[in-house]
Specification:
single chain; mainly alpha; 4 helices; 76% helix
């Protein structure tokens, strides 16, 4: 009896954590908004034909691949 209650409590806690994370993602700024703010904050303008991600990587003096890996680590 106790084990089933503990298992149910664990499931509820996991579901609540997932719900909290989803809510934070929906209510927080989008990735594009964050990137645009960083570009503006550090006065980095995309060059002709350059994406915002490429401009941010250039400003940080890293490759776009490194930027992608950093973003993936934090996701």
């Amino acid at each position: 009896m106790r084990q089933s209650v503990f298992r149910m409590l664990e499931r509820l806690e996991r579901n609540q954590a997932v719900t909290r994370q989803d809510s934070a993602r929906r209510n927080g700024p989008s990735g594009a908004d964050v990137m645009q703010a960083l570009l503006g904050r550090y006065a980095i303008e995309p060059l002709p034909g350059e994406s915002r991600a490429e401009a941010l990587a250039r400003g940080a003096e890293i490759s776009t691949r490194e930027l992608k890996d950093l973003l993936r680590e934090r996701a």
